[in-house]
Design a protein that fits this description.
alpha+beta, paralog of FGE (formylglycine-generating enzyme), four-stranded mixed β-sheet, three-stranded antiparallel β-sheet
């Protein structure tokens, strides 16, 4: 019993130390096992005339991941502007004269392709998160919750959603368990994985990284334009890698070993 207690103390101390040395602007997500996939019913499941529901978020399975870091918020216009200046890449097409729209410096960058988002992450020694990492980070340590804050439906105090006003500034709402902001709403977030609707049934249980190829990349989290059913921890969406959209952005991840 004493050995178990000491091991738990050592593990807790190690987690606290890793959190303390997290890269600037990133949050430490500890290694662990979590229940991935949808564990709640969908509103359309009882409709007899809607028999072919998309079940790409099933089966629900336990998945184990190594520890990693994740940006505490979505990449902002100001952060992306620095990348544009350093790399010589084109600014998002909606920026007037290639400049950030006035007053939008702290708003998530949008209208960036998967390749552009990936290039931004790589320029900082980071990467896009895997889909499994994104869901683990969104859920925190809770099992089977619908939203990052729990099971109650979202309100205007929880997230930026179901609006015509576009994305809002980052960090305007309370963070989740791990200290991550805007995991639901504001903008969809590119993930590293290719999308495959049946992937969950055959994915490895340890550090899954998605199919080897595909036509679409995974999107997670919902956006300012979406209703609550798209804001859940489990909902999967997708887009072609070259897609540019006013409701798609991203955040970066970093493996623990890359920090050491």
């Amino acid at each position: 019993m004493r050995i178990v207690f000491l091991s738990a103390c050592v593990w807790t101390l190690a987690v606290l130390l890793l959190e303390a040395v997290s890269p600037s602007g990133m949050v430490f997500v500890p290694a662990g096992t979590f229940l991935r996939g949808r564990s709640h019913p969908l509103p359309d499941e009882r409709l007899k005339w809607f028999p072919t529901l998309l079940r790409d978020d099933l089966p629900t399975r336990e998945i184990s991941l190594d520890a990693f870091y994740l940006d505490e918020h979505e990449v902002t216009n100001a952060q992306y502007a620095a990348f544009v200046k350093q790399s010589g890449r084109r600014a998002p097409h909606h920026w007037p004269g290639g400049k950030i729209p006035q007053g939008k410096e702290n708003v998530p960058v949008v209208n960036v392709t998967w390749d552009e988002a990936n290039a931004y992450c790589r320029s900082l020694g980071k990467r896009l998160p895997s889909e499994a990492e994104w869901e683990r980070a969104c859920r925190g340590l809770a099992i089977g919750i619908i939203y990052p804050w729990g099971n109650r439906p979202p309100t205007a105090q929880d997230a930026c959603f179901d609006t015509l006003d576009g994305p809002g500034p980052v960090k305007c709402f309370a963070p989740n368990y791990f200290g991550l902001y805007d995991m639901s709403g504001n903008v969809w977030e590119w993930c590293a994985d290719w999308y495959e609707k049946d992937y969950y049934g055959r994915a490895p249980e340890q550090n899954p990284h998605g199919p080897e190829k595909g036509l679409y990349r995974v999107l997670r989290g919902g956006s300012w334009a979406d209703v609550p059913k798209f804001l859940t921890c489990a909902y999967r969406s997708w887009a072609r890698p070259a897609e540019r959209s006013p409701n798609i952005g991203f955040r970066c991840a970093r493996s623990l070993r890359e920090r050491e």
